[in-house]
Write a structure and sequence with these properties.
The protein is of the alpha/beta class and about 450 residues long. It is built from 21 helices and 12 strands. The strands form 3 sheets. The chain has a 5-stranded parallel beta sheet, sandwiched between helices. Strands 7-8-11-6-12 form a 5-stranded parallel beta sheet. The protein is globular and about 75 Å long. Bound molecules: adenosine-5'-triphosphate and magnesium ion (MG). The site of magnesium ion has 3 residues, from α8.
Length: about 450
């Protein structure tokens, strides 16, 4: 069984503390309690805590100050803020400061349990949360490149950023659509409000509507409290609708209305909420093609496409490859041989900058502190000369054959030999690198008589 998760409950009310303690224990957690922010920090100093649930109002260091202090040192510790009904503004403030979630009091045990389970499960993804996005906005926009298409792009970003016009960013996977969306926000007068990203492809269709628009108390079974959606969270800021063509078509109608009128209604309500939001959308599909295929409503397309920003593929700006690679390697204190760099420049990069980063990341591990050279690159990038580069294939040059089993064997032999060499003979590390179990590695070594 997993170790019990330790949860620190912070509340100045002794009765509330006791109730939380009992409830948390009942829910299968190990509870710790503190009476205010100061006491909580003391506990955090001495114990490993998996999650904090804190009241907002407390005499000595309130919930927001506690959260702010924690976030100065720890970006990922899940934190749930308990606020009162009618304090939605404070809840938003808490989310901005990096809370994982908030619950409104009075709450029932189930609401608390769901919030905790959710916050614990997204702990790893936390790096992606709104708070970190907002935080990274302070730094420069991270767009590297001095090629003509890149300079043109930067100029367009500066031109369009100050406007409220909707921007539709298009481009292949890994070309930097999200980075550009953030840059637009960062260069806009909205930069002090939130940049809120919603990946329309990653959220289950049936949840997307409430995720975007929120719901009123009682909207459906289980909607015991009002909930704010991403639209409301982005008030005054920028809402980034990523993979917008993947949004269910009926929801697209509601989105269109929200964009046209600047008004939303939460699920289960008829209260009209007026919002001031700038929308940036992105897709790696051809949006007109998506319209033709009936995936994207035509009227929504025209509404989003006020200003289209097509991002160049990396192969169309191969001058930038060196700059991006150098920047990445500098951060890792790694280096690369001229020969290997030359191969990177001539490769077509279907996965664009993301693929380049992944290849460099892997190569840097393989190189283990030495300059990255050709044989640290995947065979298709290193080109043919790399296949002759390992001791193994020197002994047994690959035959020219169409046989799948023979070719697979050749390839497996080479990958295994490379991985073992890269890990200085450590088989368990090599298995990890090969992404197979140690057992399968042993089996293959036996089979190919490589032992
Ligand atoms: N011009 C650039 N300079 C430096 N890094 C970049 C650049 N463009 C993209 N990146 C980096 O490449 C990675 C992918 O970028 P991003 O997530 O913005 O791409 P995307 O177009 O949204 O991809 P997808 O369509 O797969 O979602 C990120 O790590 C990003 O920081
Ligand atoms: Mg993206």
């Amino acid at each position: 069984m997993d170790k019990l998760k330790t949860i620190l409950a912070v509340d100045d009310e002794p009765n509330m503390r006791r109730l939380l303690e009992i409830s948390l224990r009942q829910a299968g957690y190990k509870p710790l309690v503190a009476a205010d922010g100061k006491e909580a920090l003391q506990v955090l100093k001495n114990q490993t805590i998996d999650l904090v649930v804190s009241d907002l109002h407390m005499p000595s260091m309130n919930g927001l100050e506690l959260l702010r202090t924690i976030r100065q040192e720890n970006d990922v510790l899940p934190f749930i803020m308990v606020t009162a009904q009618g304090e939605i503004k404070t809840a938003v403030e808490a989310m901005k400061l990096g809370a994982s979630d908030y619950i409104l009091r009075p709450f029932d045990l189930e609401t608390l349990e769901i919030a905790i389970a959710k916050a614990l499960s997204v702990k790893r993804l936390n790096l992606e949360n709104t708070y970190l996005k907002a935080k990274s906005e302070d730094e420069n926009d991270g767009l590297i490149g001095l090629s003509a298409p890149m300079l043109a792009l930067k100029q367009l970003i500066h031109q369009v950023a100050p406007e409220k016009a909707t921007v539709l960013i298009t481009g292949e996977t890994g070309t930097g659509k999200e980075l550009v969306a953030k840059a637009i926000h960062q260069h806009s007068p909205r930069k002090n409000a939130l940049f809120v990203a919603v990946n329309c492809a990653a959220i289950p269709a049936e949840m997307l509507e409430s995720e975007l628009f929120g719901y009123e108390k009682g909207a459906f079974t289980g909607a015991v409290k009002e909930r704010i959606g991403k639209f409301e969270l982005a008030e005054g800021g920028t809402l980034f609708l990523d993979e917008v063509t993947e949004m269910p078509i009926n929801l697209q109608a509601k989105l269109l209305r929200a964009l046209q009128e600047g008004i939303i209604e939460k699920l289960g309500g008829n209260r009209q909420i007026e919002l001031d939001i700038r929308v940036v959308a992105a897709t790696n599909r051809n949006p007109l093609q998506a319209v033709k295929e009936g995936k994207l409503r035509e009227d929504l397309y025209y509404r989003l496409n006020v200003f289209q920003l097509p991002l160049p593929a990396l192969r169309e700006r191969s001058e930038d490859i060196t700059l991006i690679a150098q920047d990445f390697l500098n951060k890792k204190s790694a280096s690369i041989s001229d020969e290997a760099l030359q191969q990177l420049i001539s490769y077509a990069w279907p996965g664009n900058v993301r693929e380049l980063q992944n290849v460099l990341e892997r190569a840097a591990i393989l190189a283990g502190g030495n300059p990255i050279s050709l044989h640290h690159l995947p065979a298709d990038i290193a080109g043919t000369n790399a296949t002759a580069d390992t001791s193994f294939s020197n002994k047994q040059p690959p035959e020219l054959t169409y046989s799948i089993p023979k070719t697979v064997e050749q390839l497996e032999r080479k990958l295994i030999a490379d991985a073992i060499a890269a890990c200085q003979g450590n088989k368990s590390k090599a298995a990890k690198l090969l992404e197979i179990s140690e057992r399968s590695l042993w089996y293959k070594l036996e089979q190919y008589q490589l032992k």
